[in-house]
Design brief:
This protein is an alpha+beta fold. The chain has two domains: 122 residues, Ubiquitin-like (UB roll) (Roll); 139 residues, ADC-like domains (N-terminal domain of TfIIb, Single Sheet). Helices cover 20% and strands 19% of the residues.
């Protein structure tokens, strides 16, 4: 029997989290420690398959001796540090960030956004009806997925998934500045005329629903989308011999979308166009 190399063991780093001593492997982040300790620290731009971009700033924590609040998603744990996750300063910062996001962005399909706003007492309406919003129609330029910029918080996750961290297609990037900044293809061309290979890995990492399956978009518009009525079944893609895992989301005995387990050693949540979108033949009658 051949032994499987597990890599060198990592030392444990001990520090104080909300007054309690915790130990995490060297290289772990403060957010890793919070999750291991069962602490619910909100985050939008952090993803378990991507390098943190520190864009949303919802996960900030207070580090003893630091001048500014630190993003828990990227701050590495250090021996002896003292971290507080629920101080008046962190709560005020999260409240303001959520208010700013919700005043300019449609967070209606962002998981837990409404819960977090209630928890922190965020009131986006206090900025008034004149708060800058895009108020654009969703871009539907293909039959596979939809771009709704009204829901985009510019977390960069889709850009990273399309770029060097995963797909290396580089079909999208941030264009414009200030309130005009947005995720865009080159020269704002339709996706069908861009370098997009329609792998859909950008949809997999989008935290707000700004990118969604065309099937989901149409069902939401018709009022028939119901995640509580959906079942999930993980299987193996039959298109080739790579062995990618697919999770089929089924509602009313119809596949409505496909995702992939992030902990799968083959795909890490990523798929190609066939695996993610080539499911229609299964339900042809």
């Amino acid at each position: 029997m051949t032994a499987v190399p597990l890599g060198p063991p990592r030392r444990l780093v001990e520090f104080t989290l909300d007054g309690e001593p915790v130990r995490v492997p060297e290289g772990a982040t403060v957010l890793d420690a919070c999750r291991a300790a069962g602490k619910d620290v909100p985050t939008l731009c952090e993803g378990d398959t991507l390098t943190p971009k520190n864009a949303c700033r919802v996960c900030v924590v207070e580090v003893e001796g630091a001048r500014t609040l630190a993003p828990a998603c990227s701050r590495r744990a250090e021996p002896g540090m003292e971290v507080s996750t629920d101080t008046e300063r962190t709560r005020h910062s999260r409240k303001l960030v959520l208010e700013l996001l919700a005043s300019a962005t449609d967070l209606s399909t962002t998981p837990r956004a409404e819960e977090w706003m209630r928890h922190y007492g965020a009131d986006p309406g206090r900025f008034g009806p004149g708060a800058a919003r895009l108020d654009e129609e969703a871009k539907v330029d293909n039959d596979l997925y939809v771009r709704d910029y009204d829901k985009c918080i510019q977390c960069y996750k889709c850009v990273d998934a399309c770029g060097e961290q995963w797909q290396n297609s580089f079909a999208i990037s941030i264009a414009g500045r200030g309130f005009d900044a947005r995720v865009s293809t080159e020269h704002d061309a339709p996706l069908t005329d861009s370098a997009c290979v329609f792998c859909g890995n950008c949809i997999e990492v989008c935290p707000t629903g700004a990118l969604s399956f065309k099937s989901e978009f149409d069902m939401r518009a018709a009022g028939t989308w119901d995640e509580s009525a959906q079942t999930e079944t993980t299987t193996v893609c039959a298109y080739c011999g790579v062995g990618c895992n697919l999770t089929l989301h089924v509602q009313d005995n119809e596949i409505v979308k496909v995702s992939s387990p992030h902990d799968n050693p083959v795909t890490h949540g990523n798929l190609c166009i066939k695996g993610r979108f080539g499911f229609q033949h299964v339900q042809q009658r």
